[in-house]
Design brief:
Blueprint: E1 8-11, H1 19-27, E2 31-34, E3 39-42, H2 45-52, E4 60-63, H3 66-72, E5 80-83, H4 86-94, H5 109-112, E6 125-131, H6 137-144, E7 148-158, H7 164-175, E8 181-183, H8 187-196, H9 198-206, E9 210-212, H10 215-224, E10 230-232, H11 238-248
Parallel strand pairs: 1-2, 1-8, 4-5, 4-6, 6-7, 8-9, 9-10
Antiparallel strand pairs: 3-7
Helix pairs in contact: 3-4
Length: 254
């Protein structure tokens, strides 16, 4: 069990998806600070249905995130189902679906593409359920392997517009040494966050340990925030993220 000993942890996930994380921080003795840097909105069902009319029944349906499951689980079809990582797989299982394909390790397209089930797919139709924007690596690679790839966008991501007072309160708490680590789940969230918090926030972020389950986030953060102390968590669960934070913390009373 991670022990945060009164340390503050900044969570940048969408508000409706942050409850499990903030609860875990509190249970570990820490103080959560929620500053959503990503909004996720489901597309109108009529728009999704219109997209489906031009699609073939899939042989394989791949879900690229828990949000893809949240907004698109009903569009899986009668197909083998794949998940990009354990959080997505867990969301599918909660929705009553059996997960047939998932990476042995890792939480991204690169690891999913290493699955045996996606190696010999010439002539198969693969439906990728995702947001309106996303990485093309998964679909491009599968197309090169001979698959007929069809994207079904079921949600949109956008940068929030927080009240200026919310940002001011965050910077004030951070400047007062109340925040000792921050969590970012995606590169888009990182980009949004750095654009929202201004120069003072960017400087504070650079001097605060960062944890993410995604290597891409750590790599981008290291480029944009030179000198940052950042680590990849061994999983997307709250426990995995907080264990990594715990291991990074240096406590004054030790």
């Amino acid at each position: 069990m991670p022990d945060l000993k009164g340390r503050g942890v900044l969570v940048t996930r969408p508000k409706e998806q942050s409850g499990e994380m903030t609860d875990a921080i509190t249970a570990a003795g820490g103080k959560p600070f929620l500053y959503p840097a990503l909004d996720v909105l489901g597309r109108d069902a009529s728009e999704v249905d219109a997209s489906l009319k031009d699609m073939q029944p899939p042989d394989i349906t791949l879900f690229v995130s828990p949000n893809a499951v949240r907004f698109g689980v009903d569009y899986a079809g009668e197909a083998a189902i794949g998940a990009i990582g354990p959080a997505t797989a867990a969301a599918l299982e909660r929705a009553g679906k059996t997960v047939d394909i998932q990476p042995d390790g890792g939480y991204d397209s690169e690891h999913l593409l290493m699955s045996d089930a996606l190696s010999a797919i010439d002539g198969k139709t693969v439906r990728i359920i995702r947001g309106q924007r996303g990485r093309e690596l998964l679909g491009t690679t599968l197309a090169h392997r001979g698959a007929n790839v069809e994207y079904l966008s079921v949600y949109a991501r956008q940068c929030p517009s927080p009240d200026p007072a919310e940002t001011e309160d965050l910077i004030a708490a951070w400047s007062n040494d109340e925040i000792h680590a921050w969590i970012v789940m995606s590169v888009e969230t990182l980009d949004n966050f750095l654009s929202l918090v201004g120069e003072a926030g960017v400087d504070l972020a650079r001097r605060t340990p960062l944890v993410s389950p995604a290597t891409r986030v750590i790599n981008v953060a290291s480029e944009r925030l030179p000198g940052i102390f950042a680590a990849v968590a061994d999983g997307t669960s709250p426990d995995a993220l907080l264990e990594t934070i715990d291991s990074m913390m240096i406590y004054d009373d030790e």
